[in-house]
Amino acid sequence: TSDKTVLYSVATTLVNCTNSYDVKEVIPELVQLAKFSKQHVPEEHPKDKKDFIDIRVKRLLKAGVTSALACMVKADSAILTDQTKELLARVFLALCDNPKDRGTIVAQGGGKALIPLALEGTDVGKVKAAHALAKIAAVSNPDIAFPGERVYEVVRPLVSLLDTQRDGLQNYEALLGLTNLSGRSDKLRQKIFKERALPDIENYMFENHDQLRQAATECMCNMVVNKEVQERFLADGNDRLKLIVLLCGEDDDKLQNAAAGALAMLTATHKKLCLKMTQVTTQWLEILQRLCLHDRLSVQHRGLVIAYNLLAADAELAKKLVESELLEILTVVGKQEPDEKKAAVVQTARECLIKCMDYGFIKPVS
């Protein structure tokens, strides 16, 4: 309907149904104090609890609320005020809460409808819409959720969520979304780089919070495929490579997997980085040996690829590796009978040994 007031009323009703307004945090001590001084304390209605909200959200989605919201977003700008946009963004965020529902939202045009809400409107509205976009981008195939050129418009809202002023969940889901996008194409990686997301991603790689650090490292693992990102690692006077090498030595499997992936990619593309890796920290050899002996096959494979890159980069460096315990590790791994799961690992170890034979450092047993 073209009636300005109706649109706002419908949006407000949907916000009420999904309980997506800001709820003030209640401090129990203050509640006790208020009761003690006989002040009125508003109590939460039993049907405002999460279980009831989830049931209402399911019903709304079944009734096709996403299509209705998409229709409202397209309304004439005179009718669709910034306030109404904020309300619509709040509803979208509440609908995206459950990952299982996100496919339905994408199918009904939710991904497309969220982009204008994330780019213009009130600050609160833009953040809510960007967060909903991040939730969708984290679990959906970007080609389906944001077809065509539209996917490039998603990058800026996601990068805006990396701001340290935003809360941890927003940072985390934005990183997951960017990881998904950066794995699609170099054009997207270029766009993420141009939106100056790299310093923020690096910032979260230093984070104490395990999941944030892992998400940032996974994102960087995809980003290092880009030439301009590699140049930042090649530049002198920064600790980027050192950080990646040290993250390979952490105890968390997923974090090691992402960091080793990034290091394998970097050492494969630039010989200079192979030499630089041995200078950034005294622990590099110990960390490399740990990777090559890792229980998790994907981490072990990445470790062996790094070892191969170092062997192939420089004869002096290869000699240093052969004189260490790494040769024994490569021999043990290379002698294994390759089954289906271990084929890539054993093959890479054998390629490392062949490289050592080419240099004449070791001889085949007659």
UniProtKB/TrEMBL annotation:
The keyword Cytoplasm applies. GO terms for cellular component: cytoplasm. Keywords: Cytoplasm. GO terms for molecular function: Hsp90 protein binding. The keyword Nucleotide-binding does not apply. Its main location: cytoplasm. InterPro entries: ARM-like, ARM-type_fold. It is found in: Cytoplasm. Gene3D superfamilies: Leucine-rich Repeat Variant. This is Protein unc-45 homolog B.
